[in-house]
Specification:
Layout (H helix, E strand, L loop, with lengths): L1 H31 L10 H21 L11 H24 L9 H30 L1 E6 L5 H6 L8 E7 L1 H6 L11 H6 L4 E4 L1 H7 L2 H6 L6 E4 H9 L9 H7 L6 H36 L5 E7 L5 E7 L22 H8 L7 H7 L3 E3 L6 H10 L12 E3 L1 H5 L6 H17 L2 H16 L1
Parallel strand pairs: 1-2, 1-3, 3-4, 7-8
Antiparallel strand pairs: 5-6
Length: about 450
């Protein structure tokens, strides 16, 4: 399943790269009124510089989720994303060509034409692709399980945009007891063959509970693909259902010895970019400190003990954005707007209050990407209330993370459980390029 998703992403990326260069050649042809294969006397120079520009365009498209899912959620949503892309692509082009002393060209007209033509190509191509997939290439699936299961209720609305056409949800009890029209020794084989089903998703826990596993499996053909509901849920939602997690799950999915190169490259990345962040912070910190002191009393930095890798405590640093108060150490602070200082509001709006964490990253307490470290008192509570929560400490916590870009800050045990599902998905599937993707999506959220 993941291989299928990866192949489709590569296909989208390849077609976008083709459209980028086609747009550039068309822009050159229009600008120079020369419709030969390589128009313009400076074509080679343009190709070199615009190749660098196109690399940034791909990063922008990725951060805007242009490579996630098959279907477009709505025309309005896609138009909005396209407009954001045009704006960011224009900014990147301006910075590269007009603030870069190493380039000899300043193609205002060509840059404008290239961006407009590509955005039109992109818009047209993705809607043609969306129409084609929705009509012809969606995988037909049936799900054998309890339709009231929480996991099923969560994934069904997302099936269409992930390339699946749900034909039916079949309750295993109906098959065994031959109710609701389900009868005959060949069912559900008849439905699978008649509807030309590509994938059968099985809720194995429901089958075990009903004692119907052997009876159901004896009626299934061997000509289609099968997937457990747990694996299918992970594929659609990008999180791990806690009900499926046990000691064996951790042994099979987390204990991987082949992460040494990944961990080393990640640490090098952390050190390099934390130094850049600290250099920037050192330039602006004196000004911020003076303004903070004028605005409100209290220290410049806010420090708090948080749970790190292997459960070890560490001091977590932020620029203080709140007034000193008696309730600042409450477990959950939801309505704290009255406690935020005027300077704090500004710092939070542009996330400058988080910059001291570059020091945590340099020290090795944090990484740029990982599960967000919790306040030590909350962490101890979660360890008691959430099964296997301590396994979160297997990896270094992060400045940002998969849970942070997919779910808001938790203010209850139930919300913490939901975030933990995303943390488990990250721990299981972590990779260097996955971390880069999370950083890009974080930047996109900050821009929004």
């Amino acid at each position: 399943m993941e291989k299928r998703r990866l192949i489709f992403k590569i296909f989208l990326l390849a077609t976008d790269i083709f459209l980028m260069y086609a747009s550039l050649l068309l822009a050159l042809a229009i600008r120079y009124n020369d419709f030969s294969f390589l128009p313009g006397i400076q074509t080679k120079a343009f190709l070199l510089d615009f190749s660098i520009i196109h690399l940034f365009w791909i990063l922008i498209l990725y951060s805007l989720n242009f490579y996630e899912g098959i279907a477009v959620k709505s025309k309005l949503d896609f138009v909005k994303k396209n407009l954001i892309f045009v704006s960011l692509a224009s900014i990147v082009g301006f910075i590269y060509f007009y603030l870069n002393p190493w380039t000899d060209i300043s193609p205002k007209t060509i840059l404008f034409l290239d961006i407009i033509i590509f955005s039109l190509f992109l818009y047209s191509w993705r809607f043609v692709l969306n129409f084609f997939f929705s009509k012809h290439l969606k995988k037909k699936i049936i799900i054998i399980g309890n339709s009231g299961e929480k996991e099923l209720l969560e994934i069904v609305p997302e099936l269409g945009r992930n390339g699946f056409n749900l034909v039916s949800i079949i309750n295993p009890c109906d098959v065994i007891e031959e109710k609701n029209g389900f009868s005959g020794s060949n069912f559900p084989k008849e439905i699978i063959e008649r509807e030309k089903i590509d994938l059968v998703v099985l809720d194995l826990s429901a089958l075990k509970e009903e004692g119907s596993s052997s009876k159901i499996f004896s009626k299934l053909p061997l000509t289609v693909d099968y997937l457990s509901l747990t694996d299918f849920y992970e594929y659609i939602t990008r999180k791990i259902p806690l009900e499926s997690v046990d000691e064996i799950w951790f042994l099979e999915n987390i204990s991987k010895p082949n992460k040494k190169i990944y961990e080393a490259s990640k640490r090098i990345f952390d050190i390099a970019f934390s130094l850049v962040g600290l250099a920037f912070l050192s330039l602006i910190l004196p000004i911020i400190a003076v303004i903070m002191k004028i605005d409100s009393s209290g220290p410049i930095f806010y420090m708090q003990k948080r749970a790190g890798k292997n459960g070890k405590d560490f001091l977590f640093y932020k620029l203080r954005s709140m007034k000193e108060s008696d309730d600042q150490h409450n477990k959950w602070r939801v309505n704290d707007d009255n406690q935020i200082t005027r300077v704090g509001k500004f710092l939070r709006r542009i996330n400058l209050d988080e910059f001291p964490q570059f020091y945590n990253i340099l020290k090795g307490d944090l990484s740029f990407v990982g599960p967000r470290p919790e306040w030590i008192k909350l962490a101890r509570l979660y360890e008691k209330e959430i099964p296997f929560y301590r396994q979160r400490y297997l990896v270094r916590p992060g400045f940002t993370g998969w849970a942070q870009i997919n779910y808001p800050a938790s203010s209850s045990i139930e919300e913490a459980k939901e975030k933990f599902k995303y943390d488990l998905y990250y721990i299981k599937n972590r990779s260097f390029f996955g971390d880069i993707a999370i950083i890009l999506k974080t930047i996109k959220l900050l821009i929004d």
